[in-house]
Design a protein that fits this description.
homodimer; 248 residues; 11 helices; DNA-binding
Chain lengths: 248, 248
Amino acid sequence: MNSTAQGVRARARIEVTAAIKDEARRQLAAEGAAKLSLRAVARALGMASSALYRYFPSRDDLLTALIIDAYDSLGEAAETAEAAHDAGAEAGPVRRWAAVCEAVRAWALAHPHEYALIYGSPVPGYQAPEDTLPAASRVGHVLIGIVRDAHRGLGLAKPRLPAELRPEAVRMAADLAPDLPPEVVAALVAAWAQLFGLVGFELFGQFNRVVEDREVFFRHAVGQLAHGVGLVYPQKGRAGAGETAGEG
Amino acid sequence: MNSTAQGVRARARIEVTAAIKDEARRQLAAEGAAKLSLRAVARALGMASSALYRYFPSRDDLLTALIIDAYDSLGEAAETAEAAHDAGAEAGPVRRWAAVCEAVRAWALAHPHEYALIYGSPVPGYQAPEDTLPAASRVGHVLIGIVRDAHRGLGLAKPRLPAELRPEAVRMAADLAPDLPPEVVAALVAAWAQLFGLVGFELFGQFNRVVEDREVFFRHAVGQLAHGVGLVYPQKGRAGAGETAGEG
DNA sequence: GTCTATAGGCGGATAGAC
DNA sequence: GTCTATCCGCCTATAGAC
């Protein structure tokens, strides 16, 4: 009985927490992260504002929860898209890359305010805690995974790397993907940033009166990005450089 | 005398307007655009809040003025950088491209909050009027100009263009640069968005714990972007495709 | 866990005197 | 153009009863 009672309480707590976050997301859309207000959330939920403090000790904690949720939601979308194009084993790294990029764009279009929360301007006065890091890196890990598979499967050409950038590329590779050549990791990080540049420009209105058929434009652009990191179509065969990972 | 009096008044008005905008920019840094408050600006300036309404009829008008100023400031930085590398006539399109990109990045690092205002998440509830368009397109026009010169001077290789994208590319070219091949215009628009992706990621903290030597990394990445739009070093000579503009 | 009440602020915008 | 006064709203956060 004791455990049942606790179970009920725990479940109620989870449900109320979810309701608070849902309402907060609604307000994010209406007013933006900077004006997210515990009071307004409480009002909409028919609670006293002070009651919310039992769930989130401060406005910033609520914001952190929303940020982590958003990163996780986007990360899951990317992982799902990748898995779907992984089924045939040899779907081709370029296709998988494109599928993940398009999933990122689709998620952003479907959740513009959450996208703005995580990839838009920082919320003034809010300092993200370390807790957000694992969720924040999920999309990056998906992209790394695709390139890693291509590297093992010869679907990869090594981009060029000027001497000036080599130390930084080596450092990044050690941190992010020790099994990949530094050339590739440097190109990958650039492509990652550029991908979000494309998405952000569409979402934040910079493409208004410039790009009309955004879907086609985006598809083409991310294909170029894939090319930039060295991904090649497997049927077109050979990699541009001789080196290959030892784990064959 | 009449005209002198008007001149004095006009000058005073300009000075007060500038003071208001300066203080507003300070607040932008502290609180963000969403919380920009006429009252707070007035307080800092020692004026009654109602007095500000003689200068800016609403908070949004002040915001619009700040946005236009920011676009103009950035545009001027880009134009200056381009002009500096234009002097030797044949500085090379890749160098000019890189100089402009680096000027954009430098401006962004020097004015992070103004950058967030124009390229970050939109301010909730604020709708930018058409007035911002000319200022907003200055950087784009600089990039177009570099590519146009390269096209005239044979420093340009035509990127590939899939059939799917051709109609949109033709439309964009007609709008933005009728004298350039659609292939190039499409690649240019993508590079433009990707440039700001790189800058935004650095500025908004996505490169924290990922990229350390940002300057070198950025320089390399924008070199790749130049390559993507078909810019080539003049001494390396020949363009990849046969077509050339007729205005030789 | 939820409530009311309270402290001590903040905001946009307008009216009307000077 | 600037002021005071005003309307009417908003906020974070805490205290203490139930």
